[in-house]
Design goal:
Layout: H1 7-15, H2 30-40, E1 52-57, H3 60-67, H4 75-80, E2 83-90, H5 97-100, H6 107-112, H7 115-139, E3 143-147, H8 152-159, E4 164-173, H9 189-192
Length: 196
């Protein structure tokens, strides 16, 4: 059985999409960011906890501060990308559960009263939402350059607070010249799936 999703959309979101390393100087608008979020906010998370938080780095001053925390190889592309997003997990997401999970508002205290449980859930579900965000950027016709090569503690101190843990940083924009590295290999179905 074939996929229901149009082949062109499959290519846009997965087959032809790769991490972008260069970008044009065309800006990423607030309308594009809104459209991306309006799509990806519907991706599922456990208890609908939705812990992902997005910090958009737009000002030159903030960009300069961020670049200092990037790994050496990630600095030039982060300095040049039209938009950079710091994706983090809100470890106090449980405060929103009465609104986000209204049919069981007790979930806030029943499952997430302890900070370690919240941190684990926030990191897992925030990373899941980060994947949705990357696909959403692609759905908007933009390229994403997700990175984990940065000083996590430095970015947290510079841009976040003790309740938000960095997950990744994503450069966003229209792909520039020589934006793509060659496609890396993937594992086959037999290497990934075990039937029991």
């Amino acid at each position: 059985m074939s996929l229901v999703l149009d082949p062109a959309a499959q290519d846009l979101l997965f087959r032809e999409a790769r991490t972008a390393n260069t970008f044009t100087d065309e800006p990423v608008t607030e309308e594009q960011v809104q459209a991306i979020y309006d799509l990806v906010k519907f991706g599922p998370t456990a208890f609908n906890q939705s812990p992902l938080r997005i910090t958009l780095v737009r000002s030159p001053e903030a960009r300069e501060r961020l670049v200092q925390h990037m790994a050496e190889g990630n600095r030039p592309k982060t300095a040049a990308a039209p938009l950079v997003a710091i994706l983090s997990a809100d470890n106090e997401f449980h405060e929103e559960l009465p609104q986000l999970f209204p049919h069981f508002p007790q979930a806030k205290d029943a499952f997430f009263s302890e900070r370690p449980a919240r941190e684990q859930a926030a990191q897992l579900n925030g990373a899941l939402q980060a994947g949705y965000f990357i696909v959403g950027v692609r759905a908007a016709g933009l390229a994403a350059g997700p990175m984990t090569g940065f000083d996590f503690a430095g970015v947290q101190k510079e841009f976040l607070d003790g309740d938000h843990t960095p997950i990744m940083i994503i450069n966003i924009g229209k792909p520039g010249e020589d934006a793509w590295f060659p496609r890396s290999p993937r594992l086959s179905l037999d290497e990934v799936i075990t039937t029991v």
